[in-house]
């Protein structure tokens, strides 16, 4: 959990207001760069052991380097305090994941307390974080964002803090305050309240969040503009999240693959980089599970799929999401994540689980879960997390309450940046590449921890955890306690649904 494969980037000015980025591996260095005031490029690092996309920047004076999960589904940016309960408890870290970086307010000359005990946020996966609000300087590549309000967690269940990229109206505070993105604009570092997101494919170590610009080399064809909608929790017409209308959903098969009939539906879909999987209504999720022989284990709210679907078994299968005529096609192998690589041998040799997963090459996590498992029973609700977003290029325009979306161009090492300007109400008339880059597929053999990123998700275990079951496909009640603990650790320590 403590080691991340990270990328540094060498930045050079191609022209005024743009940044050309070259990627190279460099241990423990999240990098970002700014050119002038118009465009800010921030590396999104795919944490192979932890799930989600992380970046590092400095808090305080002198700056303390802190790692953050990048989350478009929330708005508060917060950090674990050096005094956080979890980070001072081995048992809590064994359950929730080992703390990475913490913040010590006593070491910052610019720290000031705003609201003692006022920070209290609960995410969709029921994880609750509590502490104080404070003001301090956030430094990104030498550019200081001053008097930024942040959360300081003193009671935490996450190993890292979160950088919230959502609307300021959605902060957890009683009184609304400017987010980091708002202050990037007001303090002159970018021109407009917008950014674009490119996560790259599952085998890649990183993607890029580009504040104030669009990178034409990272998507295919034209962007489709989608107006943002009130989300499923809204009581009025105000927009507080990145929710768009999704027209349809289907499974496409080609060649020798059997056709798959899954009931389509229209939905209000939240585009959420902080969630590692997608959530669909129970009917659609169960339809997918039936089609691909997805199996579950009592007490573990993660759907399991045969790891072979990441290789030739999944060839010719895609899960397609359509928005205003624009289809984002997600290859099946992007929905298969080897979350249990370190305990794969134990899982497949266990007397009970070997029956549950009989005939499989390995037990992997499937990238679509049921929203009902997270307490959302709305039939037109969808949450599209990283297993969807890796196949999409998304421009989040908060100023104009709209999204630009296109199919991603995975594996692209090129950049072609166009700035987003203040006062523009429409996206620039830009066109991405004509077709996707040719990328060699990454092997996903069972048990290999360094071939596919390990990303996982769960909700609070249900009351049946550890109880007996007569269903061979719900075997947790029969497992040795040590293996149950290992599976739950693999699922829970890195779980993210925000």
Automatic annotation (TrEMBL):
Residues 448-473 have a biased composition (Low complexity). The active site is at residues 71, 272. Disulfide bonds join 307-364. Residues 1-16 form the signal peptide. Pfam families: Asp (PF00026). GO terms for biological process: proteolysis. Keywords: Aspartyl protease, Disulfide bond, Hydrolase, Protease, Signal. CDD domains: SAP_like (cd05474). Residues 432-447 have a biased composition (Polar residues). GO terms for molecular function: aspartic-type endopeptidase activity. Residues 429-473 are annotated as: Disordered. Residues 53-406 form the Peptidase A1 domain. PROSITE patterns: ASP_PROTEASE, PEPTIDASE_A1. Belongs to the peptidase A1 family. This is Peptidase A1 domain-containing protein. It comes from Cylindrodendrum hubeiense.
């Amino acid at each position: 959990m403590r080691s991340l494969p990270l990328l540094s980037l060498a930045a050079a000015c191609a022209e005024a207001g743009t940044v050309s980025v070259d990627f190279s591996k460099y241990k423990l260095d999240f990098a970002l760069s700014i050119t002038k005031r118009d465009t800010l490029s921030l590396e999104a690092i795919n944490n192979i052991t932890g799930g989600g996309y992380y970046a590092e920047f400095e808090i305080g004076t002198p700056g303390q380097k802190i790692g953050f999960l990048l989350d478009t589904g929330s708005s508060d940016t917060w950090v674990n305090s050096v005094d956080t309960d979890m980070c001072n408890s081995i048992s809590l870290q064994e359950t929730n994941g080992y703390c990475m970086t913490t913040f010590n307010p006593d070491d910052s000359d610019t720290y000031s307390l705003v609201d003692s005990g006022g920070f209290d946020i609960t995410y969709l996966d029921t994880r609750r974080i509590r502490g104080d609000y404070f003001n301090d300087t956030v430094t990104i590549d030498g550019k200081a964002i001053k008097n930024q309000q942040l959360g300081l967690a003193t009671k935490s269940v996450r190993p890292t803090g979160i950088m919230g990229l959502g609307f300021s109206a959605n902060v957890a505070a009683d009184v609304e305050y400017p987010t980091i993105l708002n202050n990037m604009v007001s303090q002159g570092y970018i021109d407009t309240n917008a950014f674009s997101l490119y996560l790259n494919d599952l085998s890649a170590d990183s993607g890029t969040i580009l504040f104030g610009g669009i990178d034409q080399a990272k998507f295919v064809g034209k962007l489709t503009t989608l107006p943002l909608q009130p989300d499923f929790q809204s009581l009025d017409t105000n927009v507080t999240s990145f929710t768009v209308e999704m027209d349809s959903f289907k499974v496409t098969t080609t060649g020798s693959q059997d056709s798959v009939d899954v009931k389509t539906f229209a939905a209000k879909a939240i585009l959420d980089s902080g969630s590692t999987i997608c959530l669909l209504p129970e009917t659609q999720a169960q339809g997918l599970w039936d089609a691909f022989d997805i199996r579950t284990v009592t007490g573990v709210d993660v759907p399991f799929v045969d790891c072979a679907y990441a290789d030739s078994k999944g060839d010719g299968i895609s899960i397609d999401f359509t928005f205003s005529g624009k289809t984002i096609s997600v290859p099946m192998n992007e929905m298969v994540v080897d979350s249990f690589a370190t305990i794969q041998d134990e899982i497949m040799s266990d007397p009970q689980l070997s029956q549950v997963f009989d005939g499989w090459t390995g037990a992997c996590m499937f990238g679509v879960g049921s929203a009902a498992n997270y307490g959302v029973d709305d039939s037109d609700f969808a949450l599209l997390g990283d297993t969807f977003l890796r196949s999409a290029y998304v421009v989040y325009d908060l100023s104009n309450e709209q999204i630009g979306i296109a199919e991603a161009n995975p594996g692209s090492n090129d950049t072609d940046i166009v700035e987003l300007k203040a006062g523009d109400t429409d996206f620039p008339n830009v066109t991405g590449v004509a077709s996707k880059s040719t990328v060699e597929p990454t092997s996903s053999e069972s048990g290999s921890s360094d071939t596919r990123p390990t990303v996982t998700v769960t909700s609070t275990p249900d009351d049946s955890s550890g109880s007996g079951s007569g269903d061979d496909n719900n075997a947790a009640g029969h497992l040795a306690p040590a293996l149950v603990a290992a599976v739950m650790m693999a699922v829970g320590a890195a779980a993210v649904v925000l």
